[in-house]
Write a structure and sequence with these properties.
The complex is a heterodimer of chains A (356) and B (277). Helices cover 42% and strands 2% of the residues of chain A. Chain A is mainly alpha-helical. About 1% of the residues of chain A have low confidence. Classes of the chains: A mainly alpha (356), B mainly alpha (277).
Chain lengths: 356, 277
């Protein structure tokens, strides 16, 4: 009886809801529940911040809608925004527990676990005993590496490789999955993990921000300006020529099946770059299969200077002297010969002229 | 083997035999492969240079240029091996065998024979270098009278010869690094790379400055020496660079009365054009 009354009371509301749901466009891109795009959809939306920098506040809904974060509400990351219009916002904390529900555990999702990886890695701000390391402020947090991550670089692997979502691939999803929205989301979710969002040179440039900074290298007693010396190898040079298949920093410094956030020092016996493990890294199936442990004795971070790699340095100096020693006298002869040809009959000691 | 007349007369001018067709083909393959190897190698050595990406793109960029470089390198290695076999064959058939028939062989005789080869450096070369400096510094007006192959040509032969051994071996190590490190430790690759690229730079500068100056850009031959194509050298250049050999050849051909005076000589200068004789 009570149920019947409730049903009668709410019946018009249910019908109205159904009609409303029917009219919600299927292709709605983003999870803009807070209607943030009301303002942020305008390309000219900018402001000058306290430091005098121009801040672009425009959000391209079409691009954002194709990123991995498309389903996250704006307020999910910008947690300090409660009212609209809002005050200048805080920087986003990537570790906030704010995201969509993680489908396998049905728990609220967060990047918090990444922090756990990071604290166990060589980049941790804390040492083994949990004390804050010296110069911990130099050690990276999320956005030191991820601020220039391209938002949108999906994989397309059917016939021709080109940027964008592959309709051919989506066709396969549609065999089982009916919900377009779901298909797009999981396609993105999976493909972004199947490829790297950055090409090797971008990874190297990201690492170089700290690892080529002479101050940081000296302060942390690092053995090399890592990206500089990487750039002297074929790997680095190929990367500079935009090779996508050449190994970058992560290919050697991150163990197989590990996360990049879990990078370990070369002194750590678990690290892939520990001297006992290097052979395995070089001889990976995609790299130098069949390479013996001797192969890994290659000094990949040689800088050709006296302090860091004296043998290579002296060997190079030998060739510089050989080149100079060969070419300078020969070029001297060329110079003298060209000059001599201008005055072929002149001598300082003119015995013959006297005789004539 | 092909027969080449020692002196060829064309349009009333004498041309002197220098290189057989086989040698000229070897030289052209060498020249072409070296140029391609330099063009595909230098953009890697100087990857920071503004021209490097454009030059590299010309050979297909990072996805193709290394293959071009390795293929060309392989051709050059094969050419080198062929050349050594060719040289051994020519000397053995042309000189060692006749000597063996005539008076028998021993190690000393063979070594003496090898030392006497026209492309092997000897004391005359040292003397010619000394005399060249005398001439260049205006201490005399007499050019050194060169033999069949001057010290410059011997240098041009032996420098790339040594260069090809160094660059070839180091290139093979870098190319087949997995195989190489079954025998040698990985740091050999470091040194191979340095040797490969630094010796290559030396070779390229040597060839494109020194060799090209002598055979193309010097005012005596500019705009282009043609002996590498025709195998024959003009009388004028023969007199300038190989006077001793020139006189020898002319005498052998019974042309004593037509021998020109040495290059730059005062006495005979007016006669050089031929109108006075």
């Amino acid at each position: 009886m009570v149920l019947k009354t409730i049903f009668k009371l709410y019946f018009p509301f249910c019908i109205l809801s159904l009609i409303l749901i029917f009219f919600i466009p299927i292709n709605s891109y983003t999870a803009d529940v807070g209607n943030c795009l009301l303002c942020h959809k305008y390309p000219g939306l900018t402001r000058i911040d306290e430091k005098g920098n121009l801040r672009l506040l425009y959000v391209n809904e079409e691009i954002f809608g194709k990123t991995v974060h498309a389903k996250v509400k704006c307020e999910g990351c910008h947690t300090d925004i409660k009212n609209i219009p809002h005050d200048p916002v805080q920087k986003v904390d990537c570790l906030a527990e704010c995201h969509i529900v993680e489908p396998s555990s049905e728990q609220k999702f967060s990047h918090k676990d990444v922090e756990t990886f990071l604290t166990e890695s060589v980049h941790s701000k804390f040492d083994k005993n949990g004390n804050v390391k010296k110069y911990s402020e130099d050690l990276p947090t999320c956005k030191n590496c991820h601020e220039d991550n391209p938002l949108y670089r999906p994989l397309a692997f059917f016939k021709k490789v080109r940027p964008g979502i592959s309709e051919a691939a989506l066709g396969r999803c549609r065999v089982c999955h009916k919900k377009e929205d779901f298909i797009y989301r999981f396609y993105n979710h999976i493909t972004t993990r199947l490829h790297r969002s950055r090409i090797p040179i971008s990874i190297a440039e990201m690492c170089s921000k700290c690892h080529d900074n002479p101050e940081i290298v000296a302060k942390h007693n690092l053995s090399t300006k890592a990206v500089f010396s990487y750039g002297e190898t074929f790997h680095g040079k190929a990367a500079r020529y935009l090779s996508e298949s050449i190994p970058d920093c992560l290919d050697c410094h991150v163990g197989q099946g590990e996360s990049a956030h879990n990078m370990l020092s070369n002194e750590d016996p678990r690290a892939p770059i520990h001297k006992n493990n290097r052979g395995k890294i070089c001889s990976q199936i995609d790299c130098h299969p069949g390479a013996s442990p001797r192969f890994a004795k290659y000094n990949i971070h040689a800088e050709f200077n006296l302090e860091q790699s004296p043998a290579e340095y002296y060997f190079t100096i030998f060739f510089i002297f050989l080149t100079g020693g060969t070419l300078l006298p020969l070029m001297g002869i060329i110079f003298l010969d060209s000059f001599r040809k201008l005055f072929p009959h002149i001598t300082i000691i003119s015995k013959k002229r006297k005789g004539m | 083997m092909e027969k080449y007349p020692v002196i060829k007369i064309q349009d009333g001018k004498k041309y002197f035999f220098r290189f057989t067709l086989n040698q000229r083909i070897q030289h052209i393959i060498l020249a072409a492969t070296v140029v391609i190897l330099v063009l595909t190698g230098m953009p890697l050595k100087f990857h920071d240079a503004p021209w490097a990406p454009y030059l590299y793109a010309l050979f297909g960029g990072i996805s193709a240029a290394p293959t071009v470089h390795k293929t060309t390198g392989a051709i050059l290695v094969l050419l080198f091996i062929y050349h050594v076999i060719y040289l051994t064959h020519v000397i053995y058939k042309g000189q060692v065998l006749p000597l063996k028939k005539k008076e028998g062989l021993n190690v000393g005789k063979i070594l003496r024979l090898l030392a006497k080869q026209s492309f092997v450096p000897n004391l005359k070369d040292a003397k010619d270098i000394r005399d060249l400096f005398k001439y260049l510094l205006f201490l005399t007006d007499k050019r050194p009278e060169g033999t069949q192959f001057t010290w410059k040509e011997k240098f041009d032969y032996w420098a790339p010869f040594w260069g090809m051994v160094i660059i070839g071996l180091s290139g093979l190590v870098v190319w087949n690094k997995v195989l190489a490190t079954k025998i040698v430790p990985g740091w050999v690759i470091n040194f191979s790379l340095i040797a490969h690229s630094d010796e290559a730079l030396l070779a390229a500068l040597f060839l494109f400055i020194w060799h090209w100056y002598n055979v193309h850009f010097s005012t005596s031959v500019f705009p282009m020496g043609t002996v590498f194509l025709t195998g024959y050298l003009s009388e004028e250049l023969m007199v300038e660079e190989h006077y001793e050999h020139y006189v020898e050849v002319m005498k052998k051909a019974g042309l004593e009365h037509e021998i020109l005076p040495p290059h730059g000589s005062h006495e005979h200068a007016p006669r050089k054009g031929g109108y006075a004789s």
